[in-house]
Every structure is written in C-alpha cells, then in structure tokens.
Amino acid sequence: MYFIQVRSYYNYINAHITLGMLQDAGINCHLTDENTITIHPFLSPAIGGMKLMVYKSQVKRAIGLLKEAEDGPANCS
Predict the structure, then answer these.
(1) Confidence class of residue 71 from pLDDT cuts 50, 70 and 90?
(2) I want to staple 29 with a disulfide (CB 3.0 to 4.6 A). Which of 10, 14, 54, 61 is the partner?
C-alpha cells in the first residue's frame, strides 16, 4: 500500500479527532510517529509532529472532508 502525508499535528487530541473523522468516512488512514511523540514530546518539532497518512487513491476525498470540517457547517439561511 502507498500512503501520502496529508497533515501533521503537534497535538495528540487534534490528530485523533481528525483521524477518527476520516476513518468514520471510510478513508484508509493512520498516524505515524505517534508513539515517539507520546513518549518523548520534546522530539515533536524535530521530527515534524504526528503525520496523518492517507491511502493514495483517497487523498482527494480526505482533503475535501478536512476542508469541509474547517469551514464549519453550511449556512442554513
């Protein structure tokens, strides 16, 4: 399998919220460097944080879902 980095996170909670959202939408994804940062948080800036990796054929959909989540709910008026 071939995965592409979509985002990086320095905050464990934000990383897992995003990961869960994508997995619930059926996106094949995972976090890398999570264990290293959990054990040694001071290494996070040196290794670029936790990386959200998404399967290559689902990157476009994942980015769309992330953008939609950032923009917030659609205007209902």
Answers:
(1) confident
(2) 54
